């Protein structure tokens, strides 16, 4: 061996698997290393529609997000659609005095904000895919997600019947997809039956919030939707945060009842459940819901210069893809429509 080549040889036996950096030293390589990229069509944007037609109100705890009235929503969404927004999830916020009752009649009031919004957006933005959240909490006087017995516990049968009726009425009004977030046992089956009876099952996507955990991350949403329960909490129907086994059972059940897609909510704190869902429900699209509290925390950290907002948002959302999600409900949607250009 010449003096010249010897200096290029490692002193010891080379470990050919030890060097990884050659695989990601260039920006293009870093893209090649991600199994999947974020794309605009994965994003579903939550919107809040109230029953005061001209409303446009900032929500202090939910940065950059406003509650809109029916006269304001089209002009807000139109530029986003032009930038590539494909889909929204609609939340109704009835605020008029006396509009809430014990069965949540305002949810599917033909003159109420949700039905009016569905009809308006179908007409004015026909290319936009409309998913509608189905729950009773925004519309009931007690603020719970179902119908209650007199002792305040949940009447499952009445709740599920009511929720199936609401979902069917949204589909009749033109919703492409209904997304029950109430967590009542057995509602997917009843919603599917309701849609079948109405002749709408073949064109309505049932997106189940299968694994929705109770916890401390929904505060800003409750400010936006005015939907905090007036007494008690939601721990008897939303899943306990440490209950992985319950989540697995809920995933299996909703899939067996005919769900077309599955939501895991919240997202960053529940990536293991997202991975479980992508394995258990591997034939269904899995959707991560990056909820209001997660979004607000990232904003708060960015304001304190603890993180860079864009970098941390990409990092969080890449996590969902890695865990197996194909869709993302995110308040960052307008930003990603810019960032993904
Ligand atoms: N059904 C929607 C929620 O309950 C809350 C979502 C959020 O906190 O963004
Ligand atoms: Zn609810
Ligand atoms: Zn909800």
Automatic annotation (TrEMBL):
Keywords: Heme biosynthesis, Lyase, Metal-binding, Porphyrin biosynthesis, Zinc. The keyword Lyase applies. It catalyses: 2 5-aminolevulinate = porphobilinogen + 2 H2O + H(+). It holds the Pfam family ALAD. The active site is at 212 (schiff-base intermediate with substrate), 265 (schiff-base intermediate with substrate). Its cofactor is Zn(2+). Pathway: Porphyrin-containing compound metabolism; protoporphyrin-IX biosynthesis; coproporphyrinogen-III from 5-aminolevulinate: step 1/4. PROSITE patterns: D_ALA_DEHYDRATASE. 5-aminolevulinate 2 binds at residues 292, 331. One of its GO terms (molecular function) is porphobilinogen synthase activity. One of its GO terms (biological process) is protoporphyrinogen IX biosynthetic process. Its EC number is 4.2.1.24. It is an enzyme of class 4 (lyase). InterPro entries: ALAD (IPR001731), ALAD_AS (IPR030656), Aldolase_TIM (IPR013785). One of its GO terms (cellular component) is cytosol. SMART domains: ALAD (SM01004). 5-aminolevulinate 1 binds at residues 222, 234. It comes from the Eukaryota. The keyword 4Fe-4S does not apply. Zn(2+) binds at residues 135, 137, 145. Belongs to the ALAD family. Homooctamer. Catalyzes an early step in the biosynthesis of tetrapyrroles. Binds two molecules of 5-aminolevulinate per subunit, each at a distinct site, and catalyzes their condensation to form porphobilinogen. This is Delta-aminolevulinic acid dehydratase. It comes from Hanseniaspora osmophila. The lineage of its organism: Eukaryota, Fungi, Dikarya, Ascomycota, Saccharomycotina.
């Amino acid at each position: 061996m010449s003096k010249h080549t010897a200096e290029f040889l490692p002193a010891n036996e080379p470990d050919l698997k030890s060097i990884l950096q050659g695989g990601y030293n260039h920006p293009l390589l870093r893209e090649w290393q991600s199994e999947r990229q974020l794309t605009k069509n994965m994003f579903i944007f939550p919107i809040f529609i109230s029953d005061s037609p001209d409303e446009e109100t900032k929500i202090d705890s939910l940065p950059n997000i406003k509650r809109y009235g029916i006269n304001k929503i089209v002009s807000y969404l139109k530029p986003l659609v032009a930038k590539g927004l494909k889909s929204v999830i609609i939340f109704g916020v009835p605020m008029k005095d006396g509009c809430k009752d014990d069965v949540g009649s305002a949810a599917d009031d033909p003159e109420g904000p949700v039905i009016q919004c569905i009809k308006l957006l179908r007409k004015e933005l026909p290319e936009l895919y409309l998913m509608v959240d189905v729950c009773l909490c925004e519309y009931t006087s007690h603020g719970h997600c179902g119908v209650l017995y007199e002792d305040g516990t949940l009447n499952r049968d009445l709740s599920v019947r009511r929720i199936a009726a609401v979902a069917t009425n949204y589909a009749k009004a033109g919703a492409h997809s209904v997304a029950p977030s109430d967590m009542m046992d057995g509602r997917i089956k009843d919603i599917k039956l309701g849609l079948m009876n109405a002749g709408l099952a073949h064109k309505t996507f049932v997106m189940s919030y299968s694994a929705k955990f109770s916890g401390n991350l929904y505060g800003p949403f409750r400010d936006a939707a005015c939907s905090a329960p007036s007494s008690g909490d939601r721990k008897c129907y939303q899943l306990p945060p440490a209950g992985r086994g319950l989540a697995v059972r809920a995933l299996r059940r909703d899939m067996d009842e005919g769900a077309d897609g599955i939501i895991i909510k919240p997202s960053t704190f529940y990536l293991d459940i997202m991975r479980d869902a992508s394995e258990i429900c591997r034939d269904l699209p899995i959707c991560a819901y990056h909820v209001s509290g997660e979004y607000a925390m990232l904003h708060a950290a960015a304001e304190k210069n603890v993180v860079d907002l864009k970098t941390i948002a990409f990092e969080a959302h890449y996590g969902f893809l890695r865990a197996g999600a194909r869709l993302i409900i995110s308040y960052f949607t307008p930003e990603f429509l810019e960032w993904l250009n």
